[in-house]
Specification:
5-stranded mixed sheet, alpha+beta, 4-stranded antiparallel sheet
């Protein structure tokens, strides 16, 4: 859930809680007011009937015997239902009228029932009526808060519509404020995403909020520092690679001049001893043969090491043939791995030694990684020269079906070395892999260096 939505929901929850609490307090206040209103009307009616009916027998005449009271005149007493029952219990007169009924119908039944449910039970009052000493019946006064409930319902309906309008307007205002206040977060996320993708030229704009403005300044300073550190690392890596190649050349010279010549001398001496052993010393013949075979084996081994260190094969055969030779020798060493390769560098112009060595070393390191870590059964390598308009590059694709690795995998020395060599000549690399799904490397090496 986004921060904006979370803030809006929290504010809505607070508003809703306030509205609920306000509604509860309003209902409680209305309930008390209704009871006070009805109780006041009930006391007034009791007092009036006590004075006018019970204690004033002269008010009535013999002719009014059949209708001793005119309760219809009390229709305005909307909080009370006043009824007169004769001695047989028959309803003779009442203050209930159609107008009163309409007033009751102003509130829905469920609201009237709800208010009745949360209110204390109402108690009716019964007043015996005697005229000239004769019992005529009884007046029954029943509290009737329905009219009050209707008024309360109308008030609540108005308040409800007002609250809905307030709620909607508040939400619009809150959403506008939240989106406006958090809009700079989008700039921050965009800048971080570009930085994650390797764009070290990204710059965050100056933000108006003081806190976010500080973040903007710190971010831009961090990018500067990071860019400077990465550039220093690239320079050190390039220097290290150059030193490494120089050391390899130096080691190759030492092997050729010292170790190689010594082995050649040993092999020549072994040949002389072999001739003598055949004539005069047949007993030492097996030892002489062993020395001769071992010296020959060491000479071949040193020759392979010289080719690997000095990369003389690049100068002798060219890049395409040198890569084919490297792949063929690797296939002979690891026959259980099915290697399929396709190399097409037709049209490749003369390139400098750095690009040539980088291409060779990358393939060499890829093969080493596959041998040591991949546990692959099949390997596909495609190397092509591509020229489109002003773009000229060597495109390399290496795919294996080995154990692979997940996104959290940290580069080892092999992949780190490949990345540094590619960065040295401003190339690009994309690695796709997942656990038990092999590894795919897509590499583009530009023919000309960027200035």
């Amino acid at each position: 859930m986004s921060l904006k939505l979370r803030l809006i929901l929290i504010i809505n929850a607070v508003l809703l809680l306030i509205l609920i609490l306000g509604g509860v307090l309003a209902i409680d206040t209305a309930k008390k007011n209704v009871r006070a209103e009805v109780a006041s009307a009930e006391k007034l009616a009791l007092y009036l009937f006590d004075i006018g009916v019970l204690n004033n027998p002269k008010y009535y005449s013999i002719e009014s015997e059949f209708k001793p009271l005119n309760l219809q005149s009390l229709v305005h007493m909307r909080h009370l239902k006043i009824e007169f029952f004769n001695l047989e219990g028959k309803l003779v007169d009442s203050n209930v009228s159609e107008t009163h009924t309409k007033a009751i119908d102003q509130a829905p039944n469920w609201f009237v029932n709800f208010m009745g449910l949360i209110s204390e039970p109402w108690q009716l009052q019964r007043l015996p009526v005697e005229i000239l000493g004769q019992a005529k019946g009884a007046i029954v006064i029943t509290p009737d808060p329905s009219y009050e409930f209707g008024e309360i319902w109308n008030q609540f309906a108005g308040i409800f519509y007002l609250a809905c309008a307030f709620f909607i307007l508040t939400n619009i205002l809150v959403a506008w404020i939240v989106f406006r206040a958090l809009s700079p977060v989008e700039f921050i996320l965009k800048a971080l995403t570009e930085l994650e993708d390797g764009n070290l030229k990204v710059k965050m704009p100056n933000l108006k909020t003081s806190e976010l403005s500080a973040i903007s300044v710190k971010f831009n300073n961090m990018v500067k520092t990071l860019s400077s550190s990465i550039e220093q690392n690239h320079q050190l890596s390039r220097k290290l690679i150059r030193i490494q190649e120089e050391e390899r050349k130096s080691l190759a010279r030492d092997l050729h001049d010292e170790f190689g010549q010594s082995l050649t001398a040993i092999h020549a001496d072994a040949a002389v001893l072999k001739a003598l052993a055949n004539k005069d010393y047949p007993k030492i013949k097996p030892s002489v043969n062993a020395i001769s075979d071992l010296s020959k084996h060491l000479m071949n081994l040193v020759g392979g090491m010289l080719n690997s260190l000095k990369l003389g094969v690049l100068h002798e055969l060219g890049l395409e043939e040198a890569l084919k030779d490297l792949l063929n020798i690797w296939q002979l060493r690891y026959p259980k791995i099915n290697l399929h390769y396709q190399i097409n560098l037709k049209g490749l112009p003369k390139i400098n030694e750095t690009i040539s060595i980088t291409s060779y070393r990358i393939i060499q390191e890829c093969l080493t990684n596959i041998t040591r870590h991949a546990k692959a059964k099949n390997v596909d390598i495609h190397i092509h020269y591509i020229k489109k308009k002003s773009i000229a590059m060597i495109d390399i694709e290496v795919v294996d079906d080995g154990v692979g690795f997940n996104k959290s995998h940290r580069d080892g020395f092999g992949l780190s070395g490949i990345r540094e060599r590619i960065n040295e000549i401003d190339g690009k690399i994309n690695i796709t892999s997942n656990t038990n799904q092999g590894v795919q490397l897509n590499i583009q090496l530009p023919i000309t260096r960027k200035k």
